[in-house]
Each structure stands twice: as structure tokens, then as C-alpha cells.
């Protein structure tokens, strides 16, 4: 059974989480403690040594990222809890971490906990994932994204991504010597990538402008590795003005 910890400053949210967890995961998750602030949160984690922590992003005396930065290691699964804070949500998505929106949706909670139970059986560290999210949230470094495949979690530096190609609900990240296929659409991924680096030249393509070497009059951008990236007719003038 997983040892769960609630770090949330709203009592009604803590009570709702407790109720839903007891209802759906009585035999899988046991809530061993609660905390309502950064100070209490650090103490609770060190005291209870949880397997799974529900973390409110914004607490009365700071943010949950402050809690995580004070710990000697992050050896537990994390499910962030937040309101409709677009900045916090983008940070969490950059780190490919799980989150729940308030008010809590029971189906989303069930899905998030089920994933956490599966992940806990695999040896891995969350520290890099948290670092990516935390840096963006604190307006520090924003130069990488974490993406998950069936086999692994990939930390991709923006400078290493040559281009992205979308096919329906799947997107392939093309790097110099590797391709990473993820089950997310371009629409969901584009907002997470730096738009000063990546240019949408076609409905299905995002290209890293630093790799573009020329434009072919047939309607293609060419990368330093010889990839030919199509340019949509309606985007041609904008693309060329930005690049050249």
C-alpha cells in the first residue's frame, strides 16, 4: 500500500481528496499525514517518508516548488493540485508531471493515482522532472522539455531538437541522431516550446530556426542535416520574413 501525504492549504480540498481516495483506493493508498504550508510540508515529508504526495502549487507561505527544493532527494511520486493558473500548468506540463485542477474531478484523480501506482513499481528519479518545472515556474531557465514514451522519459534540450512532425495525435521529435515519438498532438506541445526558437512553417511541422540553412523555391526549408521541411503557402511570406 502506498503511503500518501496531502499538502494543501484549503481544508475542503483536503477533505475532498481524502474522501475520494478512500472511496476509490482504500486498499492501495493510505493517507498518513497532512500539511498546509511550506514549513509543515517539508517536515511532513521528512517525518512520514511518503510514496505519493499531493502538492498544492500555491500555499500560504510560498509554493510547493520551494518544498521540493529543500528536500535532500525526491523519492516519491507527485501529483500537483492547482487552480486554473496557466503559468503553473505550463510549468507542470514542461516537466511532464501529473496534476489535478480544482475542483477535483473524480475520474482525473483516479487516472492520476493509477499512473502513480504503476510508476512507483519502476525505479526512477523525479528530480530532473521537478527541476524543469520549477525553473520555468520561478522564471529561470526555460530551455528543455520532458516528454514520456512507453519506454522512457526523455529530457530534451530545445537546442537539440531539429524539428517536430505531427501526425494526428502523435508528434515525433527529430534530433540529430534520434527520433522520439510521443502520444501528444502538436497543438498540445507547441505552447510548451519556446516560440523564439521554434517556427511553425506548416500545420504539421515546427522547425528549430537555428538549423535552417536555406529555402527551396519549391516550398521547402532545408536543415543543416538535409531534412526538407514543407512550408505552407499561406505561411510562406511570414516564414521567409522571420528567417531571412
Automatic annotation (TrEMBL):
Residue ranges annotated for the Response regulatory domain, each copy included: 3-117
Keyword terms: Phosphoprotein
Chain ranges passing through the membrane: none
SUPFAM superfamilies reported in the protein's UniProt record: CheY-like
Cited InterPro entries: CheY-like_superfamily (IPR011006), LytR-like (IPR046947), LytTR_DNA-bd_dom (IPR007492), Sig_transdc_resp-reg_receiver (IPR001789)
Residue intervals of the HTH LytTR-type domain: 145-244
Domain of life of the source: Bacteria
Residue numbers bearing the 4-aspartylphosphate modification: 56
Gene3D superfamilies: 3.40.50.2300, LytTr DNA-binding domain
Name of the protein in its database record: Two-component system, LytTR family, response regulator
Species in which this protein is naturally found: Tenacibaculum platacis
Amino acid at each position: 500500500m502506498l503511503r500518501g501525504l496531502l499538502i494543501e492549504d484549503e481544508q475542503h480540498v483536503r477533505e475532498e481528496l481524502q474522501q475520494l481516495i478512500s472511496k476509490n483506493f482504500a486498499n492501495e493508498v493510505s493517507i498518513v499525514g497532512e500539511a498546509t504550508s511550506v514549513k509543515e510540508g517539508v517536515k511532513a515529508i521528512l517525518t512520514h517518508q511518503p510514496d505519493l504526495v499531493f502538492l498544492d502549487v500555491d500555499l500560504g507561505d510560498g509554493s510547493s516548488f520551494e518544498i521540493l527544493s529543500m528536500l535532500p532527494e525526491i523519492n516519491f511520486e507527485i501529483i500537483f493540485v492547482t487552480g486554473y493558473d496557466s503559468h503553473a500548468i505550463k510549468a507542470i506540463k514542461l516537466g511532464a508531471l501529473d496534476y489535478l485542477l480544482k475542483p477535483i474531478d473524480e475520474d482525473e484523480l483516479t487516472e492520476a493515482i493509477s499512473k502513480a501506482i504503476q510508476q512507483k513499481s519502476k525505479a526512477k528519479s523525479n528530480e530532473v522532472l521537478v527541476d524543469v518545472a520549477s525553473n520555468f515556474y520561478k522564471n529561470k531557465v526555460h530551455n528543455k522539455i520532458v516528454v514520456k514514451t512507453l519506454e522512457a522519459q526523455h529530457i530534451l534540450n530545445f537546442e537539440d531538437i531539429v524539428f517536430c512532425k505531427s501526425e494526428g495525435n502523435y508528434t515525433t521529435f527529430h534530433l540529430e541522431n534520434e527520433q522520439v515519438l510521443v502520444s501528444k498532438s502538436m497543438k498540445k506541445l507547441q505552447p510548451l516550446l519556446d516560440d523564439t526558437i521554434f517556427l511553425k512553417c506548416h500545420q504539421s511541422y515546427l522547425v528549430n530556426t537555428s538549423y535552417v540553412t536555406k529555402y527551396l523555391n519549391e516550398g521547402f526549408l532545408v536543415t543543416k542535416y538535409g531534412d526538407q521541411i514543407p512550408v505552407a503557402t499561406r505561411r510562406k511570406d511570414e516564414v521567409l520574413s522571420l528567417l531571412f
